[in-house]
Every structure is written in C-alpha cells, then in structure tokens.
Amino acid sequence: MRVTSLARDAATTSTASENRTRPEGTPSARNTPKRARRRETLTAYALVAPALIGVVAFMVVPILVLCYLSFAKWDILLPMKFIGTANWEWALTSPTMWHSLGVTLLFVAIVVPLQVGVGLWLATLLTRALPGSTVFRTLLVLPWVSAPVVLGIVWNWIFDYGGVLDSVLGQHLGLLSNEAFALPTVAFVQAWTQIGYVSLFFMAGLSSIPNEVVEAARIDGATDRQIFWQVKFPLLRPTLFFVSVTGVIASFQAFDLVYTLSPNGGPGGSTDLIAARIYQQAIGQANIGQAATLALTLFVLLVAVTVIQNLVFSRRMNYDR
C-alpha cells in the first residue's frame, strides 16, 4: 500500500511539473476551447437538421417554386412557357382579383372580432367553474377538431334554401343563396368553428394571472368590471396578440368550409374569397401561373398584416405576470 501511494504521488508531481513547464499559450491549450465550441456547434446543427430540412422542403422550396411559376404560363398538360410579368400585370389590373381581395378583407373583418370577442366572453365564464363547465368546454372544442367539410355540409343543410332554418321559421330565407346575407352567414360559421380554440387560450391566460394581483385590486375597492378591464385584460395582451394573428391568418386562408357552404363564389361572387379564387384559377381554369401569382400576393399580404399587428401590440404588451 505504501509503495502504491508513493508511486501515485510521484506521478502527480511529474504531471504538475510538466504543466508548469508548458506555456499557457501553446496550441494544444489554446485550441481546446475552440474544439469544444466547434463540437457543440456541430451537435446543435445535427439536432436541428431534421426540423430545418422540413422547413426548407415544405416552406422555402414551395415559395421559390411559386415565384418561378408566377412568371410562367402553364396548364399542367402543355409545356411551361415563360411570359415575364404578364401574370403580375393581370393581378394588378384584374377586377376579379380586386373583388376577391375586397371580399376577403370584409370576411376577415367580420370573423376575427367575432371569434375573439365571443371567445374572451366564454373564457371568463368558464374560468368561474360554474356548474356544467367541464361538459361545456368539451362541446366548445368539438367544432374546432371536427372536419371543416363535414361542418360545411351540416351548416349548408341548416341554412340552405328550404333547409332546417326555413322549416323552423316557416318561411324561405335562403341565407346562402341571398347575395346580401351569404358572406355574413359564412363568416358566422367560420367564427363558430374557431371560438373554442380562442377560448382555450384565453382560459389559459386568465388562469395564469396571479390571485394576489386580483385580491390587491379588490382590497383597493375595484369592482369586478374594473378588475377585468384594468387588471386582467392588460395582462391578456400577449394572448390577444397570438389569437388575433392566428385568427387573421386562418381567415385569409379559409377555403374548405367556405367552399362547401357557398361553392363557386356564392351568389353574385359575394363569397369569392381569395383562397377560393386561387383554387379556381389553378383547378377550374388550369392557369397555374395566375394561381401562383395570387398565392404570392396572399403570402405578402399576410406578412404585412402580421408585421402591422406586431408593431401595434408590441407597444402595449407586458409579459411580466
């Protein structure tokens, strides 16, 4: 045992003397941190690579393909032909395109405030733990998780001329066949499908507000209305920003539900949303170039609207709870 201890002490002394004789700036000592950082960087890129490949394959590449197709004429059957900026000139001067854009903006202006307002109101009720809240939460989420085409068929059966609503009221309203009511009716159904989604996020935001803040306001004499608008609502601004941005994007991209309720643009083109117009140009008229141009226009519009929303909410959002 004594011999082993002496040998170990000798080895330690030899290593220490070797470290003292080696300068701190030698290549081996200097490169060790760099090698460790390089190894960590390569490991990080390896872990991110699967997700990065998916983003490039399913987001970046399709956008680049759309950019190329927007300068070409192609009907899938015949060879592709480069036509320059003709598709963009058509998009900027076509009354059909501007009509679809106006209908889409009106549709978004109806859907987003409706689903956000009703969703916030329902969230305030559900967080109070009223009797039957659990069952109602489940029923509220069902439209969001259901297939849009199925929901469109059901609501078409209700609102169509001679449908369930007409039978109950005893008169023919034909909301989906009426040019004045077709778009509000479709917007109502679209908002109805998203209210449960919005309510879930508002419920999570309300539940994360500390009780101490609410109790302090109540001790200061604030009423329930004042507590909600002056205490809770300011703390919900990050949630409001998220549901507003996602609601705008979903409304601009609404297609399957709207097309099932009111196909081919509805009466007088009253429900001719830009997403349905893209489908009509690509499938109905076999004009891939014009469809790609409209798709890029929608993409640029969504980016612009999102940036504007971010600028508006960033001045007022407070993430500190």
From TrEMBL:
Gene3D superfamilies listed in its UniProt record: MetI-like (1.10.3720.10)
Keyword Transport recorded: yes
Domain ABC transmembrane type-1 residue range list: 101-309
Superkingdom as given in the UniProt entry: Bacteria
UniProt cross-references to InterPro entries, sorted A to Z: ABC_transporter_permease, MetI-like, MetI-like_sf
Keyword Zinc: no
Alphabetized UniProt keyword annotations: Cell membrane, Membrane, Transmembrane, Transmembrane helix, Transport
TM region positions: 44-71, 97-123, 135-158, 181-202, 235-255, 291-313
Localization of this protein: Cell membrane
Region (Disordered): 1-36
Annotated membrane topology: Multi-pass membrane protein
PANTHER family hit by this protein: ABC TRANSPORTER PERMEASE PROTEIN (PTHR30193), INNER MEMBRANE ABC TRANSPORTER PERMEASE PROTEIN YCJO (PTHR30193:SF37)
Protein name, per record: Carbohydrate ABC transporter permease
